[in-house]
Amino acid sequence: MPVATQWPLVGRRDELDRFTEALADPGCEALCIYGPSGVGKTRLGDECLDRAAASGRRVLRASGDGSAGEIPFGPVAHLMPADALAELGGDDVLNPVVFARLFDLARRALTPGAAETGAPVLLLDDAHRVDTLSLTMLDRLLAVGALFCVATVVSGQAVGETVTRWWRDERALRIDLAELDQLGVDALLHIALEGPLDGTAAAELWRASRGNVLALRELVLGAQSRRVLVRRDGVWRLDGPLGAPPRLRELVEMRVAALDPDRRAVLDLLALCQPIGLGQLEATVGFAALEDLEREGLILVRTDGRREAVRLGHPLHGEVLRAGLPALRRRSILLGQVATVESHGARGREDALRIATWRLEATGRADPELLLHAARLARYDHAFGRAARLARAALAAAPSAAAGLVLGESLYNLGEFAAAETALAAATDRAVTDDEVVRIATVRRRNLFRGCRREEEAVAVGRRATAQVSSAEAREELLAGEAEVLSMSGRPADALDLLDGLEAATPRLRVLAAIPRAAALAQVGRTAEALDATRQAAAAHQALGDELAIASPGTHRVTELYALVQAGRLDEADERGRSWFAMASRARSPLGVIWVGLHLARCALARGQPVTALSWTERVTTALDASGLEGVRPAACAVAAVGLALLGDAAGSMARADEAESLAPGFGFLVPELPLGRAWALVAAGEIPTARARLLAAAAEAEAGGQVPTAAWLLHDAARLGAAAEAAPRLAALAGRTDSALVAARAGHTEALAAGDPERLATTADDFERLGALLLAAESAAASADEWRRHQEQRRAAALNVRAHDLAERCEGARTPGLVRARGVVPLTDREREVALLAAAGQTSRAIAEHLYLSVRTVDNHLGRVYDKLGVSSRAELAVALGHEQEPEQP
Amino acid sequence: MTPEQLALVQSSYAALGDAAPAMARDFYRRLFASDPTVEGLFDADPDVMATKFSDELAAIVQAIVSFDAFAVRVRDLAARHVAYGVQTRHYRLVGDALIGALAAQLAPDWTPDLEAAWRRAYNLVAEVMLSTT
């Protein structure tokens, strides 16, 4: 009876055509196939390769698949000449020079031969499991056109930012592969089974598989082997129940459980150590058994550049097999494979690394040098848990400063700060060269400052190291780090002084100095310079390539976001911040989520969006609970307290303000803003004079610390609560010290409030609205209305009141004392506003009637009431009364 | 496909009888109306085309109950179509035109079950053809 072996590709022709177009498009570097597990992404990718091969391209395969034998850089290793990986000697793999050399080797090896029609095509299977190092290499090869890549990604899995960038920057075409529809399932079954199915079988298979191709295949093969699906009279029928629709994993478990021991052994070996050379497996189990396994779709044999290699048929099989392996069996398989590869003579460094990893997995011990190397690769790949494990093993075998550094850094990244300090203190004693001293001191200082929150010790560690090193570069690198501590501690002026004394003669030093410099500049309100510095640092950082002991590239984004908020470029901050937040979430970077989320929350407050601000603080708090970066928590609590107060939740606000004050104060540069939380909680509770006094006192501290935008925020809030006269001169002085448009608008608003000037209040409403600070704009307009009313200018008062109302409507229900002051005007109904806006835009009553599906008479009635309420008598006056130009509605 | 659906396809095609060439002409009319550029792919006499089409369809319908015979027939058809410059999108247009022409010719006996059977049959033909090219 026919057993479905190679299942045909069904229902994917459009996708294939899109691949052909993408391959022919010189602007397209890759095709990214996203889809759920088992939907047929690899099958489609294979078909793409067949097409590419048919059109004269060289084709290559690589995959990331989570078996223990997988090593960083493995997926792209075969793109290079066999001896290229020997270049990865010692600790040099992270060195940009070696990286560039490998890149050149790969590029040369990929140059199309005379018979080839274009760059080779690589199928990168399960790109979400591929290590960062490999992706970085691929990214650069794609960028120079040395390669075209077809990448498959299981949707919902976090995939490296590199791959996301391909399609987001339109360098790649993204295809989202869905399950087959019923028509597709029918055709697939008919072709695979080479004949008709009866209605019950077809319906059951459709119901149980839900169009998932892998599930369908597992169901069919399983049912065939249990003789439940049989062919009689030329028609496939079910002779028993197919069963309840099982989950994909259970299906695979069922199939694996049914294997005989010999074949199971092959699969277990692959699950732990794949890929494995065809020759080795043939020698152990024989060709026939392998043929069987291949026919049943349990293994795949492919040429991966240099050799014929065997892998499991599907990554899910690997997961199920590994989960079912008892510890001793696992150990004996791993050691058996070590012995086999060693007896055949390990082929250079790649095999040596694999052996070290297997041995470690099996016994916890291996060659220390290789372990250290593997630890570095894992750390580079941000696999900190694995890096710590490998580094511990390396240290156990032979203590060294280098292994201690990797261990300490990994532990820091894992949030195990006390353990990191122990490891780094031990490493400090073993450090000899300038390079070692600098790297260890940098990480140790960061851990003490950010992790343990022991600021003075952090500074002391840095100073001891500074005294110990001999070269100017090493000294400056340590000083730049000290400036970072100063800046983060809320001492921006000291940080800037220190940085001004540096020569920063190398690109690396310029990046290192620019990071604290940008943050300090943003704190003191020199926002344009801050943005310049951070953007230059980001560009220079990228040009440097990836190096140890520089903060992650995400640091520049956080600083940029911070500077944008300080500058009052709120719409821009919000838009960029949101996309960076999405990136950080996808990359599962808790630090990114926390910092970007916090600044987005601050930005939302400034924009007058309390609900949005609370949704950000919520996410920040969740990430904080998981990461242990406690230095940010007080600020998150304070922001939440303000948000709750704006929504009128006095009790909730008070609770968050209490929480903020009960915690250790956190990072110094955020401390001056913390009193905002208590002050607004007091406002919500009706204790405005107390709130005002708190804000004025807190502002004095921020002014003394040189934190201009923060001081302005505090003073302006005091002014909004009635302290305008006292705040005005101080704000005017602050505005002279910063280029922040928000500070300027705050100062202008405060001055106009103090002077009771309705014209200027209307202007500041415009200023705030332009910046995206809608709540402040609404308050400004409301205050202007009040003043006009005081001047007996009812018409203008009404217009500003409408304006204030419209602005406040966009503030997510925020309530402040500055908004409730406006009184005496009957608001327009929604319908009246619609009619009024159209009339103000110059439309006739007839046109409005057609537009809104009303009678002309009704429109005129509405308009009459609008005129009465606003105190106007013509369309021209109406336009003025509405106070701002309206875009004419598109019919 | 189920045996019942195969039987429906065969019996309904048989019911066309002498009207098959007329259905085929209607099919081409619908196809060219849905995308005028398709007409450029054909250069034969319309009546000859209609006869060829209905003969080919009859042969496939007859073979459809035996997968081996069906696959041979359809793969041969696919090989002949490669040269015509047929693209993936054309298959969708052809399918819709065919279902439309059959429905028009077989009304009022055209039922949802019949349509489902023909859609599956056509899709099967298309997938086998496409997997050959």
Describe the structure.
The complex is a heterodimer of chains A (891) and B (133). By secondary structure, chain A is mainly alpha-helical. Among the domains of chain A are: 13-176, P-loop containing nucleotide triphosphate hydrolases (Rossmann fold), CATH 3.40.50.300; 182-245, no CATH class; 259-325, Arc Repressor Mutant, subunit A; 583-820, Tetratricopeptide repeat domain (Serine Threonine Protein Phosphatase 5, Tetratricopeptide repeat, Alpha Horseshoe); 830-882, Arc Repressor Mutant, subunit A, CATH 1.10.10.10. Helices cover 66% and strands 5% of the residues of chain A. In chain A, strands 2-3-4-1-5 form a five-stranded parallel beta sheet, with helices on both faces. A three-stranded antiparallel beta sheet of chain A has the order 8-10-9. In chain A, helix 31 packs antiparallel against helix 32 and helix 33 packs antiparallel against helix 34. Chain B is mainly α. Chain B has a single domain, classed as Globin-like, CATH 1.10.490.10. Chain B is built from six helices and no strands. In chain B, helix 1 (3-16) crosses helix 6 and helix 5 packs antiparallel against helix 6. The radius of gyration of chain B is 14 Å and the shape is globular. Chain A binds chain B through residues 8-11, 13-14, 16-17, 183-184, 186-188, 190-191, 194-199, 202, 234-235, and chain B through 1-6, 65-68, 71, 87-89, 91, 119-120, 123-124, 127-128, 130-131.
